[in-house]
Each structure stands twice: as structure tokens, then as C-alpha cells.
Amino acid sequence: MAQAVAPTLLEPLVSREHLRVHVDAVVRGRLWDQVFERPIGATLQELFDNNLVRGVVATDALIGTHSSLHSLRANKCFLYHVIGNGSGEWKVPVGGMGGVTAELERVAREAGAQIITGAEVTSVESDGKTASVVYGDTAVEARFVLSNVAPSVLGRLQGKEVHDAPGCQLKINMLLRKLPSLKSGVDARLAFAGTFHLDESYDQLETAYLESVAGHVPSVLPGEMYCHSLTDPSILGPSLAGHETLTLFGLHLPASLFEGRNSELRDELVRRYLDQLNTHLVEPIQDCLAVDASGRPCIEARTPLDLEEELGLPGGNIFHGELDWPFAETDDEVGRWGVETEVDNVFVCGAGSRRGGGVSGIGGHNAAQAVLERF
């Protein structure tokens, strides 16, 4: 599936039928039906007998997506998580994501771009041929506008009534003096080299979703951790040599649960997640944390409401909205790039574009292609 679909993400959109024929020609068998037509939960129940194995596979369908495994919404999330680079292999950029940003800045400045920070845009107006972007007392005239904010944010800047799709996750970042030892005896550098799953069996994931939909914090919190510093120590820089990072991603924690109690619930969830992790460790994770110059543990947590307040992500949705299938949904979309808006010279260039998702850069590539076509 990755070999068939990934190359199409950087090409104009094709119809659903066109993509199906292409996938069937490359893969053959029932894979199209299992990924695009049937809920991923039904497919996993058919393919795997073990409840834990089903859950480990299913988590790729739920990162940043508040959904039952019996909904096709989960299938879209699953698809984008397993087709990267045409192999499903995830890669960490040297120097971390900050290294990517720094390189983009360098190339942009060398090309003559002017970068303005601390300038909150208050409106975007366009007649399809010329546009005006307003921030503060300044209005910038432009032939094209490329928007890397969520589509609903862009809609508000254009004076439209829009609907947000809230996020559903807790992120806990930790800087460690050392990796903790596990009660299982498995070497920590092996255990944390991939994805470390916490209470993510198939049944636990589905139960957590049903409890959260009912307005309750899940009784058992599903989560998973990644140690990016094991893959690329350069993300820490020379001054932190020998340290490690752990990032814990908590699932099925929609923004609505935090309303009116964001700080209190954040602290409660951090405590609960660390307690769950500690059941597998010889020593508490708290004893492995690095401390800052003031002696405070190097740990931070962000809820959906935190992301909305700090970054302007509507409802803290890390995908900027609902994910779309990687094909044209209507005849009018065929041959387009999935970045177009109702206004001819305004484009979405970020995660909110069709096929955008998270930090792939696909939205930016496709927006650039759409603009070049109009020169």
C-alpha cells in the first residue's frame, strides 16, 4: 500500500476509482477493501487473534484522532501513518524538527524572503486576483496567499462562519539523566528504541474511546512513548550529551474533557501516566528526570487547550482538522492539488490541506505546485 499510494501524494489528485485501480494493480488481493472500505477495527479482528497485537497495530489509527476503531475516520489516520516514504518507515531529521525550521529559514532568507514574527494576522481579503493580508496597522498586498494555519482559522480571517474539529491528546515531554531500567530485564536502549506502548490493547483502546465520548476521563489511560534521542542524539545538542528524551503521547483525551479544569486535569493525567509507566520500571521515572538550573524536574505537558492558547490550533487539533482521503472526493477536485480554497489565489499549505496531515511537508509542496501552475 505504501509503495502504491505514497508517490501519489506529491501529484495532482486522482479519483477514488483511479487510485483503487492503481492500488489493486500494485498490491492485488483485498488490501484496498481492508483499508479503504471496511473499518480498520474489523480488519484487525480478522487478521489477528491476539488482543494485544491488535491494539499495537491499531494505535496508528488513533494518533491525534478521536474515533472508534469501527469508524472509517480511524482508517484515514492509519493510512497516513503507515505509508510514509513509500515504506512506512518514520525518520527523525538530524537536529530535530528545529533543524528543519532553521534550514527553511536559511534558504528563504538567501532567496530574498523577508520573515516577520510577532505579527498576528487579523484579516485576509481577496477577489481571486489580488489579496490583502492585514496584521496590526499594516496591510500587505499579494498576488497569492499561502496559509499554514488551520483551515478554520483561515476561514475566520476571511470573515466566514466555520466549524472546528477539536484535538484529543495529551503530550508529555521529559528530559532524562538516564533511561530507566525495566522489571522485565529487557535492555532499556532496546525497549525504548521503537514505540513503547502503555495499556493499548484493542479492548483498552475501544473502552477508553467509549468512556471519553461519554464525557469521562478513561479509567485506564492508553498511551505510548518514543525516545527520539536514541535515534538521533543531535536533537539534544552538545551541552546535553548523555541525556535522553522521552515523549509520551496520551490517546482519547478530547479537548472537551479539559474545559473548566485544564490545569487540574493536566496535572492529574501526568501523575496517572507516570504511575502507569512506573509499574514496569525498577526505579520511578521521576528519579531519572534531569533538573533545570532551579532544581525543577525537566518535564512539560500540553493538553489540547494548551495548544489552542499557545499556538492557535483550534481545539488543539494537531492535524488542523479532520483528515481526508488521499484522492478527489468530487469530479471538480480531480487534477487539483488538494490545497485550493473557494478563492482562486488563496491556498492552504499546511496540515489542513488534503493529504497534509502532520509534519510531512506535503501541503507546502503541493501549494507551491498550485501557485507555479498559475504563473
Description of the molecule:
With 375 residues, the protein is an alpha+beta fold. The protein folds into 3 domains: 2-86, no CATH class; 96-164 and 319-373, FAD/NAD(P)-binding domain (3-Layer(bba) Sandwich); 170-316. Helices cover 34% and strands 13% of the residues. The chain has a 5-stranded antiparallel β-sheet with strand order 6-7-8-5-9. The protein has a 3-stranded antiparallel β-sheet with strand order 1-2-3. A two-stranded parallel ribbon has the order 4-10. A hairpin with a 4-residue loop joins strand 1 and strand 2. Helix 4 packs antiparallel against helix 5 (51-58) and helix 5 (51-58) crosses helix 10 (202-213). The longest helix is centred in the C-terminal third of the chain and has 17 residues, at 262-278. The chain is globular and about 65 Å long.
